[in-house]
Amino acid sequence: MKNDSKERYGSVSKTFHWLMAVLIGWQLFKFGDRIAEGEHWVGETLVPWHVSIGTLLLILIVMRLAWVMTQRHQRPAQEPATAKLVKAGHGLLFAGMLLMPLTGMMVMLGGGYGMTAFDLEVFAKGEEIAWAATLGSLHSPLAWALTVLIIGHISMALIHHFVQRDDTLKRML
User: Fold this and answer.
1) Within the chain, what is the greatest distance between any pair of CA atoms?
2) C-alpha distances out from residue 68 to 108, 122, 126, Å
3) Which three-class secondary structure state does DSSP give residue 115?
4) Which structural domain range is residue 22 located in?
5) Residue 57: what pLDDT?
6) In angstroms, rounded to a whole number, what is the distance separating the alpha carbons of residues 138 and 105?
7) Distance between CA 151 and CA 65 in Å, rounded?
8) Domain holding 64: CATH number?
9) Nearest-angstrom CA–CA distance, 62 and 58
10) C-alpha to C-alpha distance for 109 and 47, rounded to whole angstroms
11) Which residue has the higher pLDDT, 168 or 20?
């Protein structure tokens, strides 16, 4: 089933969710740069793709948000007692997923580095741009905040599955 229903997420929502989960997990390997200044296998093989994967994630999150808007009236319902909390949590996750690549682009633009994704020039090297650098300075703190949100999201999914023993996790599997 392609579309979402009141009981389950459809194949498009599941594909977006799990593809982005893998790509965001890959992006989190960037934290490995803080170990031995990135001089290890992870830092030398996975981290160089950080900008390209971030650009892909920006495209995917825009597409995913558009998809969510088309499915908003038929998505699985939340328990009334926690519905606002669940919506707030998902809203923060979506905001983080959108802001991370945007602030990452601001790092590159603000520093005058230029930006290339998958060997395609997104913008050329140039002068430093102070306002873009200022916005880009939010990239690292947002990465930590998004990581905390992701850990909370995974934790809640596991609590629903193993403690509450409901079908919340199964809707996305």
Assistant:
1) 56
2) 30, 27, 37
3) strand
4) 11-172
5) 98
6) 11
7) 21
8) 1.20.950
9) 6
10) 19
11) 20
